[in-house]
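Quick one: co-fold with NAP.
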Amino acid sequence: MNTVARSRGVVVLGSTGTIGVNTLDVLSRHQARFHVVALAAQRNVSKLLEQCLLHRPEMAVLADDDAADELNTRVKQAALDTEVLSGAAGVRRVAALKHADVVMAAIVGAAGLLPALDAVKAGKKVLIANKEPLVMLGGLFIKEARRSGATILPIDSEHNAIFQCLPASCGSGIPIHDAPRSYGINKIILTASGGPFRNSSKAQLEHVTPKQACSHPNWVMGKKISVDSATMMNKGLEIIEATCLFNVGPEDVDVVVHPQSIVHSLVEYVDGSVLAQLANPDMRIPIAHALAWPERMSSGAETLKLCNLGALGFELPSLDRFPCLRIAREVAGEGGTAPSIANAANEVAVDSFLNGRLKFTDIPWLISETLEHVAAVDDSDLHSVLLADEQARSFALEQLDTKSWRRNNDERRATIT
Ligand SMILES: NC(=O)c1ccc[n+]([C@@H]2O[C@H](COP(=O)([O-])OP(=O)(O)OC[C@H]3O[C@@H](n4cnc5c(N)ncnc54)[C@H](OP(=O)(O)O)[C@@H]3O)[C@@H](O)[C@H]2O)c1
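Sure, here it is.
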């Protein structure tokens, strides 16, 4: 008998961002297999309207109320059959839509926590790019996925690579059945490009501008993750993400700098075998992998021409020049609400750096100060994590507002272009 597979309904949270746009590109290549049910973003009206015209979703949400009103007017003018929702409640509503099968969680930062959790609680196939919620509350995501039957698939290229290198017997997606050690896994090795300042001296890092920090050598990404890559906080957040997704301790996760971004991560087995996933640096590859999983489908990315690659390099990261990596490892070991405090302080610090209020080299300083003054608790339930996030943000913002801070930064602002 000839069976035709049912088209899967997809919700894209953060559709106007880099991951969202790449997701829609992959989906548009497989229109018989997937259809877009809902799109959500924060305030980018024109991009979301353009996406609505192209993908005809049932629903479109903007978290910003004024922007949602404008979108609604323009959707009506365009005679589109798309219902426009607004606010954080609208985003959460589409994250758990009954008739959606797949949710791409690609909102940036802690703002994505509640909608991603809603999608997991609703038992969806959740493609998680938004690493910050996993850093804050990874344990709860895994627990809720076990309860609801949701499958979590990692989109971060490193975690997607590790997932591809795990033995099939680990089970059907994440949560995996047992701890990786029971499958003979010795170590998880995350690769890091080293970012735009891999070879910069400490003195050079003092004068880094937002534009330089956002110019990643290999990847095109949103501003926040670009700055995180430049400070290597991104790799630190990824260590914590790996501990939750793969049920390992931070000591089981190594980081190696690999400037070419071709080997996306590796898994070392007890017999000495090391399995790696290689591909061109194109986020459509992990997105297509997760959308089609456990099958495979085309992504639109160029295939790897091994003979054109030249040498691939690997080196140890410098914790001296990139202290965010050390801080993240420490909070990963501490657990409880410590990762949420570090994450919130980092979000404030990155935003302030991008707005010219903070020097690049003060990002780790602000995170350390916040960790020192905001007490972490061992319990990391939703309530304690949201409270820690709020306390850390207000402490970090207070630091920026102090008199001496403002005075010093007047001079700094003049040097940032
Ligand atoms: N880019 C990559 O290559 C990459 C790789 C791995 C992991 N990730 C992770 O994926 C996530 C997204 O990264 P990105 O690079 O795509 O970021 P981005 O380009 O900055 O896009 C962020 C998206 O989130 C939306 N958004 C922000 N706040 C929101 C809110 N409160 N409610 C609803 N939507 C909101 C934005 O909407 P507006 O456009 O309207 O502001 C935009 O659609 C991050 O957590 C990042 O760490 C990214």
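If it helps, The pocket of NAP is lined by residues 14-20, 40-44, 63, 91, 106-108, 111, 129-132, 156, 219, 221-222, 224-225, 283 (CB under 6 Å).
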